[in-house]
Each structure stands twice: as structure tokens, then as C-alpha cells.
């Protein structure tokens, strides 16, 4: 009786968690690809440069692995080819467990991306989650007879359900890639107040770890005893810290970060000119021409890129882009928007609009959002 209940509990938890994890990542396949690229870079440094050859295929691997999670989760819940599915889940979780352990133990990738930007886990939390899943899958492998005793659905029906989950998963990932994620969990989502997110929500508090005579001690305030040697500061309320710490905009004249929060600003983000979709600049240029002619309400367009000034000067002449340009870190631009180029509309620092290059807005839409 206990084994039967444990088996069914593991069946629901494992199946549901794999479906949830896969769908979260399919919602943002580009974000998952970026995380895979981080792993490839780490492994290329620690093991072999051959891992760098996988970077061009990161997006395809992102869609494949995320789809696999959903399909295996669905297949488990409907008990389609149960034995095969359980072994596939076992090998997949062993692979994930290795990744999360390596990240945690060697402090390599500080966020595994297990649940995309929706739920942030520390490396050790991710590893613990994978260990629990590994145990539950082992329970299922040894107690699968209890699942079979529930009564088998028609294999044709279960096969059709699995096939539908496969088609559905690929479809939503392709759509999310060609547009923006359905659900945006990033700090730059529509409605986000960027200047506010750059400040702590409450005063930060710390513990001070000090050492004296080989013994470590922890203090709530910095000790006045000068014989103590400082070791480190440990934040007590890191959740109250700034949610955005790396948004910086500059050019050769200096820092222009605060200027981006003044009035209405249309940010045209061009992460890498060599990979930017040039055709989309026909619509972008038409929008900029409309903004120049219709100044009520006034919207100031600015271009932000992570390419060099030499590269961007050549590029902007190729696409006839006429707007002042600034620079930002490439990682920040990847976080702000998944497309290249992409548009963000700021109203006094608040994101009121966000568009993939396949969804360039017209003039009236932009002006309506800032009124």
C-alpha cells in the first residue's frame, strides 16, 4: 500500500515537474539557448575547446531539450511506453544532475536556468532539486508495476496525446522565437520601472565574518576590536537588493544612463550588427520618420548597441539608420530583449512597450502608449 502511494506520488510529481520545466523554457527558447552557451563556454575552458563548436546549435538544442522534457512528462502521465520513458527520464536527470553539481561545486554557472527567468534557483538548490527528482525516478523504475495496475489506456490514444504534445511544444517555441516570450519574467518586462528596480527595495543588512586566532566569528556590526581580521560580508536580505545592477548606457562623451529615463524614449536595441536582421530596418526607419514629423507627444529615438563604434558606423549607413547611438553591455541587451534588433519604449523610465523586429509597431501605437 505504501509503495503504491509512493509510486503514484512520484508519478504525478515527476511528470508534472518535467512538463512545467519544459514549458517555462519553451516560453523563452532564446534565453535557454543563452544559458546553454554559458555551459559550452565553461566546458570549453575546463575540458575541451570542442564544446565551442556546439554554440551555433544552442537554439536548436534549447528547443530539442525543452521539448523532450514536455514530451517525456506527458508520456509518463499517460503511461505511454512506460519502461522506455522512465529510462529516458533517468538518463536525462543524471545529465542534469551532473551539470548542476558541476556548477554548484566549482561555482561556474550561478543560475542553471532550470525554470528560465520564472524561478531563480541557486546552484545548490538546483542540484538538490535534481537529486530529489533522481530519487523519485528511481522509485518509479522499481515500482512501475503499480502504475500499470491503474489500467492502461489505448496505446493509440496515448500515442496521439504524446504526438500532440510534441507538435504543440515545437509550435510554441518557434512562435516565441519569432516574437517575444508569451510570459515575460525578466526585469525589463512591460510595466517595469527601471530606475526603481536599480535601487534596493529596503536597506541592505550584512553579517561580518571575522577571524581571530584561527577562529571565525560572525558579527551583526563591524567589530571595534582591531585584532580581528576581516574575511567576508554576508548579505542578510539579498532579496531586497537592486533587481537591475548592470544597466549602463554610455558613449564617448560619458555616461547617459539617467538620460534614458527622461521623457519618452524609443530604444532601438542592436546587440550585434553582424547578426542583426537588416530587412526590419525598413519598418524601423519608417517609424522614426513618423516620430520626427509628429512631435506630439514627443518620443526621442535612441539606438543602443554592443558592437564597436567602427562596426556600427558602417552598419548604420548600410541600413540608413538616422538616430543617436550609445553603447551597453551585450549581456544586458540580451536580457532586455531576445530579438536583434528589438524595440523598447520608455516613459520616464517605465517600460510601456516592447517589440520583436517581426512586430514593429506603427506610429499611432507608439504615441498612444506614451500619452
TrEMBL record:
The keyword Transit peptide does not apply. The chain crosses the membrane at residues 9-26, 57-78, 85-106, 126-144, 156-177. InterPro entries: Methylamine_util_MauE (IPR009908). Keywords: Membrane, Transmembrane, Transmembrane helix. The keyword Lipid metabolism does not apply. GO terms for cellular component: membrane. It is found in: Membrane. Pfam families: MauE. One of its GO terms (biological process) is methylamine metabolic process. It is a multi-pass membrane protein. This is DoxX family protein. It comes from Rufibacter hautae.
Amino acid at each position: 500500500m505504501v509503495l503504491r502511494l509512493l509510486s503514484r506520488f512520484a508519478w504525478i510529481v515527476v511528470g508534472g515537474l518535467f512538463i512545467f520545466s519544459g514549458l517555462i523554457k519553451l516560453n523563452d527558447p532564446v534565453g535557454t539557448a543563452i544559458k546553454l552557451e554559458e555551459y559550452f563556454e565553461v566546458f570549453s575552458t575546463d575540458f575541451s575547446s570542442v564544446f565551442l563548436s556546439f554554440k551555433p546549435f544552442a537554439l536548436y538544442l534549447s528547443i530539442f531539450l525543452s521539448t523532450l522534457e514536455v514530451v517525456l512528462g506527458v508520456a509518463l502521465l499517460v503511461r505511454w511506453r512506460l519502461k522506455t520513458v522512465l529510462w529516458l527520464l533517468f538518463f536525462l536527470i543524471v545529465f542534469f544532475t551532473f551539470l548542476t553539481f558541476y556548477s554548484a561545486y566549482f561555482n561556474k554557472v550561478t543560475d542553471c536556468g532550470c525554470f528560465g527567468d520564472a524561478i531563480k534557483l541557486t546552484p545548490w538548490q538546483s542540484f538538490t532539486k535534481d537529486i530529489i527528482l533522481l530519487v523519485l525516478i528511481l522509485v518509479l523504475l522499481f515500482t512501475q508495476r503499480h502504475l500499470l495496475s491503474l489500467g492502461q489506456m489505448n496505446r493509440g490514444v496515448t500515442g496521439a496525446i504524446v504526438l500532440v504534445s510534441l507538435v504543440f511544444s515545437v509550435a510554441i517555441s518557434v512562435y516565441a522565437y519569432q516574437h517575444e516570450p508569451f510570459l515575460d519574467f525578466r526585469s525589463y518586462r512591460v510595466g517595469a520601472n527601471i530606475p526603481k528596480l536599480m535601487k534596493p527595495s529596503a536597506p541592505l543588512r550584512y553579517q561580518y565574518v571575522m577571524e581571530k586566532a584561527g577562529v571565525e566569528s560572525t558579527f551583526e556590526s563591524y567589530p571595534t576590536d582591531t585584532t580581528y581580521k576581516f574575511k567576508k560580508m554576508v548579505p542578510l536580505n539579498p532579496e531586497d537588493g537592486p533587481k537591475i545592477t548592470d544597466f549602463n548606457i554610455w558613449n564617448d562623451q560619458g555616461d547617459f544612463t539617467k538620460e534614458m529615463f527622461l521623457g519618452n524614449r524609443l530604444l532601438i536595441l542592436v546587440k550585434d550588427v553582424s547578426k542583426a536582421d537588416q530587412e526590419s530596418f525598413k519598418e524601423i526607419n519608417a517609424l522614426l520618420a513618423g516620430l520626427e514629423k509628429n512631435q506630439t507627444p514627443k518620443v526621442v529615438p535612441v539606438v543602443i548597441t554592443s558592437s564597436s563604434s567602427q562596426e556600427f558606423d558602417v552598419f548604420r549607413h548600410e541600413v540608413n539608420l538616422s538616430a543617436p547611438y550609445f553603447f551597453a553591455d551585450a549581456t544586458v541587451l540580451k536580457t532586455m530583449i531576445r530579438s536583434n534588433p528589438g524595440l523598447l519604449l520608455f516613459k520616464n523610465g517605465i517600460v510601456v512597450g516592447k517589440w520583436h523586429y517581426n512586430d514593429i509597431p506603427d506610429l499611432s501605437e507608439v504615441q498612444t502608449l506614451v500619452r
